[in-house]
Specification:
This protein is an alpha/beta fold and 147 residues long. It has a single domain, classed as Dehydroquinase, class II (Rossmann fold, 3-Layer(aba) Sandwich), CATH 3.40.50.9100. It has 5 helices and 5 strands, in the order E-H-H-E-H-E-H-E-E-H. It has a 5-stranded parallel β-sheet with strand order 2-1-3-4-5, with helices on both faces. The longest helix has 16 residues. The model has no long low-confidence stretch (mean pLDDT 94).
């Protein structure tokens, strides 16, 4: 059975109330429950972590090595600023899918650059909370082609 870490970055703990016109009204707890339900349906294990602190996200990526088979990462604003996250992804040798609730390419120009994309196996953005289950499918498909 594959194990997936779903790692969320800064401000995602405020989902449901933070800019609902962009991010929707679904809370992070709602997303986690949706992912747990979906994980049972596709027979994978799923774990969750969220932090507003860059170093904690780096630590979570390091800890995922040897524990999980892959990571779904919504790095929030750190996507556009964190070389440390990029280096951590390169260091852990795990497939990572970059995820965003909104379409970052249809937003402010500073959101168009990602330090995560060059080291991720793929990017899912613009599908709201549904992006998490899409990312789960994509990651499982990637893992199964490697087995």
């Amino acid at each position: 059975m594959h194990s997936i870490l779903i790692l969320n970055g800064p401000n995602l703990n405020l989902l449901g109330t933070r800019q609902p016109e962009i991010y929707g009204r679904t809370t992070l707890a709602d997303i986690e429950e949706m992912c747990r339900t979906y994980a049972r349906a596709i027979d994978v294990e799923v774990a969750f972590d969220q932090s507003n602190h860059e170093g904690d996200l780096v630590d979570a990526l390091h800890a995922a090595r040897g524990t999980h088979h892959g990571v779904i990462l919504n790095a929030g604003a750190y996507t556009h600023t964190s070389i440390a996250l990029m280096d951590a992804i390169k260091s852990v040798d795990l497939p990572v899918i970059e995820l965003h609730l909104s379409n970052i390419h249809a937003r402010e120009s500073f959101r168009h650059h990602s330090y995560v994309s060059p080291v991720a196996i793929g990017l899912i953005c613009g599908f709201g909370a549904r992006g998490y289950t899409l990312a789960m499918d994509a990651l499982v498909s990637h893992l199964e082609k490697d087995t």
